[in-house]
Protein: tRNA (guanine(27)-N(2))-dimethyltransferase
Amino acid sequence: EKHISIQRHLADLEKLADLKEGEFTMAVSQNTDLHATDEKKPCPLCPEEKFKACYSHKLHRHLQNLHWKVSVEFEGYRMCICHLPCRPVKPNLIGDQTFSKMGAHYHCIICSATITRRTDMIGHINRHVNKGETESRFITVPAPKSREVLKESATDVQVLPNYSTPQKTDSYFNPKMKLNRQLIFCALAVLAEERKPIECLDAFGATGIMGLQWAKHLRNSVKVTINDCNENSVTMIQENCHLNKMKVKLNTKEDENHEPMGDGEENTDTIEVTKMDANVIMHLRSFDFIHLDPFGTSVNYLDSAFRNVRNLGIVSLTSTDISSLYAKAQHVALRHYGCNIVRTEYYKELAARIVIAAVTRAAARCNKGIEVLLAVALEHFVLVVVRVLRGPSPADDSAKKIRYLIHCQWCEERIFQKEGNMVEENPYQQLPCDCHGSMPGKTAVILGPLWSGALFNTGFLRRMLFEAVQYGLDEAQPLLKTLVCEAECTTLKHLSTHSPYDENKQEECGVYIKTPNTSAESYLVHGKRKSDEVIRNAAKRQKSENSAEHPAFYYNIHRHSIKGMNMPKLNKFLNYLSEAGYRVSRTHFDPMGVRTNAPLAQFKTILMKYSTPTYAGGQAEGPLHLPEDIQAGEQVQAAADGKAEDAEFLEDEKSGVSATVLAKDYPTCCAAD
Structure:
C-alpha cells in the first residue's frame, strides 16, 4: 500500500485523523463551539512529541498549513511532508544524553524513496518523468498517460518527455534536424538506384526515425539495421517499428509479437534492431551505407566505419559540435580534429573542410580513398557524405588533398599552400594581396590542415534532387538546387534541367548506373565489386573534372562593403561579376556569400564600381567613388602584376573627406588613379 502521506484530497488526510468530512466547516457556519463535544485528536503525520493531540479546528489548520500546503503534486496525488520516524537522522551526543531527531521528509510515489527537501523531491520526480517512469507501484489504477506521437515524412514515432533535450532523455529526437534526415534519405535513395539490395546502418538510432523512413519508402531496396547502445532506446525503437507496422528482428530472432498489418496486405519489410556499441557493430559487420550521428563529434567512430564499409559504399556523418567547428572553442577543435582555426567570414565552409580532412585521414589508415559527394554546414549541424574508394592509390590521392591554408587577417584573402615539402622563404608571397608589405607586423596565419578538394559532386546532387522531387521532400529541394548551382558555380537561372538518369550511360560520376539492360549480378560477384575498373573510371573522371572544379571558399558582400555607399542587389552583383568573365554562384553556407574565382581585389573593384552614394538630407560629406576613367582592364592588370604604387591621400574639395579609407581598402585602384 502507498504511504499515508500520499493522498488525493485534503479530506482524505482528515479522515486519517478521524475528522468527519465537513465537520470543521459546519461548525464554523453554525457558530458552535467544538470544545464542548469534540475530543482531542493527534496528527497522523507527526509524532506525539512534535505535535500533541488537539481539537478538530486546530488539527484542521495544522494539516492544511503544514502538510497539505507544502505538498508535491504528481498525477492527481499529493505527497505531503511527513514527520514520522520513517527517516531517522544521525543522533547527536550531548553529555550523557542521546537525542534522536526525526527529520521531515517526503515519500516518492514512484520508487518509495524518502527525500528531505521539497525542491529535491520535485527534481527527483522530474527525473522519473524524463526516463519515462511514470507508473507508481502503489497506485492500483494508474492514470493512463499516452506518449506523444510525432509524424515526419509519413513515419510515426513515439517520443518521451523532453525528447528534444539530449541530457534529459534516452531517446533524443530533434525536429530541427528534419532537413538533415531528408538529405541523408536522398543520398541513400541514389545509392539504392545504383545497386540493390544494399545493407545500411543507422549507428545511433535513438527513436529509430531515420531507419524507419529508409525501410518505409525504399522497402525491398534496402536492408535496414538500427543500432543503439541504450536499452531504453532499443525498446523505443521496437515500439516505433510496431507502430509503423514493421517486423522487428532482434538478436537474430524475429519478434513474433508484431501487430497485424491490416489492409489485407502483409508487409514483408523487416528491420533489424541491435543493442551494441557503434564501434563494435561496425567492426563485426560490413555495410554499403553507414550513417553516424552521435551527440557531438564523430571522430571517435571514423576508424570503425571505414574498416568494413564495402567498396563504392557511402559513409555519411553529422557533426553537431558546432562550438568547436565554428571556431568558438578553438582548443576543442585542436584536440578533436588536430586543426588550428580562427573565426573567419567563411567559417562554415572551414568547418566542412575540417570534418572532411578527419574523414580522409581515417579512410587512408584503412587503405581507402574518398570522393566527397556532399558537404553542408548549417546552423545546427555539419553534414558530410563521401563515397569510399578501396585501394592504396585512391588513399594516396585523397591524402594529398589535405593542405594548410594561408589566411590574411587584414583583407580576408586566403589561399592553400602549394604542394611540396620544401620550406618557403617567404610564405606571404603566395597570397595575392600585398598587406604584408603595407601593414606592420605579421598579417597572416596558417590554418589547418584542411581538405582542399571539391565539396560537391554535381551528378550525385542532381540525382539527389530527382529523388527529393520523386518522394515529395519539399524542404530539401530548395537547398539541393542551391547546392547544384554551387557545384557548377552558376546562377539559378542558368541551371540546366535535364534528367540526371541517362539510360544510355552506364557510368556517371565514377559509378555504375543501373539501366534496363543491366542487372544486380553485374555489380556484385560474391559480395565483391569490380573495383579496379571502377577506380580507373573514377580517376579518369576526376582528372577531367579538375578544370571545372568549383572555386574554394566565398566572399561575404557585406564584409567588403564601403561605408557611405549603397551596394547593388546580390543577384545584380552576380551578373556584374559574370559579365566581367568570372565564374560566380551563391552559396548555402552564407545567404549573402558569393562563390567566385575572381581575386579579392577585383571583387572589391566591381563592388565599388556599381555601388551608389548614400545621400542624407543636406549632408556635408560627399561619397567616396572611383574616378570614371579607370578601366577594368587596367585594374585587373595592376592587380595581377602587383606593381601598384603607394596610394596618395587625396582630399575632395567639396566634401573634405580624405581618401585614406579608399586607399586602404583598394590599394590597386588608388595606385592606378
Notes: DSSP finds 22 helices and 28 strands in the chain.
